[in-house]
Amino acid sequence: MAELSRDQSLSLLRWLIEAGADEAIIEQPINRFLPAKPVEVRREPAAASRNAPPVQTQSKKVAAAQAVSLSTAPGAARALAQSCTTLAELKTALSNFEGCELKRFATNTVFADGNPQGRIMLIGEAPGHDEDKQGLPFVGRAGKLLDRMLAEINLDRSKVYITNVLNWRPPQNREPTPEEAAICLPFLHRHIELADPLLLILLGAVSVRHVLGINEGITRVRGRWDLFQSAALKRSIPVMPTLHPAYLLRQPGAKRLAWRDLVAVAEKMKQLGLA
User: Fold this and answer.
1) Block means of pLDDT (10 residues each) for the chain, length 275 residues?
2) CB–CB of 73/122 below 8 Å?
3) What is the CA radius of gyration of the chain?
4) What is the DSSP pairing of strand 161-164 with strand 226-230?
5) What is residue 59's predicted lDDT score, i.e. its pLDDT?
6) What is the C-alpha to C-alpha distance for residues 45 and 29, in angstroms, rounded to an integer?
7) DSSP state of 233
8) How many beta carbons lie within 10 A of that of residue 256, not counting itself?
9) In this predicted structure, what is the pLDDT of residue 44?
């Protein structure tokens, strides 16, 4: 094949971009003119095949979750998340998903805690040390403070549902990279759709950034009602951004601001018939 000129190469690239091919799937190009390598077929013994149980839909999803490479992870995460029709299926899919590097360093997949039937959903940033060990969100010092904050407006974990943007602890509790968040977000969005809350409370700047797409500091956006748009639910959900309990442990003077946010949440709960 004759080598393309620079102008021809640029013209071809423009055509590909206009056609929607705007990202590379792998780093190295594939020479598709080489003969295909023979595929090794592994055959199971006939007796084992006859006695094998039928493949169920859930096992197919587990297999799909495990067979994910990092290069295809964002697309695979979207497809896998959308295929889940219950919270139990989503939890299983996440537990078996191998497309996020964070999982390599985590002890547990931290899915959720509380009661999704309460219709009030809280979303934090990521699991910490205690959460990673126990496999539940907000069980350390920040979690104990969160429980006390909720009690002030007559809420507890039997009435609210709690999760995080990330389901695995980042090393040294660092903020997630854009790539890590992009892989986890399809699961979070599907989590919101399946929980079907009437009210969302976002704890901290990372949660606000990835749920609402707002990059302002949390002290600027907290206490200001916003909306989460859900095409799947065919409605918008009122959202209250507020300060993360871990921030309040470092800055006790900010608790008065968090209290104002809780008062606004309590008023909204009455309007929605949740109180």
Assistant:
1) 62 59 51 48 42 51 49 79 97 94 95 97 96 97 98 97 97 87 94 98 96 94 96 94 98 97 98 95
2) no
3) 23
4) unpaired
5) 62
6) 38
7) T
8) 8
9) 44
Cα of 158 vs its chain's centroid, Å: 22
> pTM of the predicted model, to two decimals?
0.75
d(CA 127, CA 246): 12
The CA–CA distances, whole Å, from 214 to 78, 210, 217, 236 equal 22, 8, 9, 17
Q: What is the pLDDT of residue 21?
A: 55
Of 214, 204, 189, 191, the C-alpha closest to 251 is 204
CATH of domain 110-271: 3.40.470.10
Residue 98 contacts residue 65 (beta carbons within 8 Å): yes
Of 184, 206, 192, the residue nearest 161 (C-alpha): 192
Across the beta sheet with 161-164, the strand order is: 113-114, 161-164, 120-124, 199-203, 235-242, 226-230
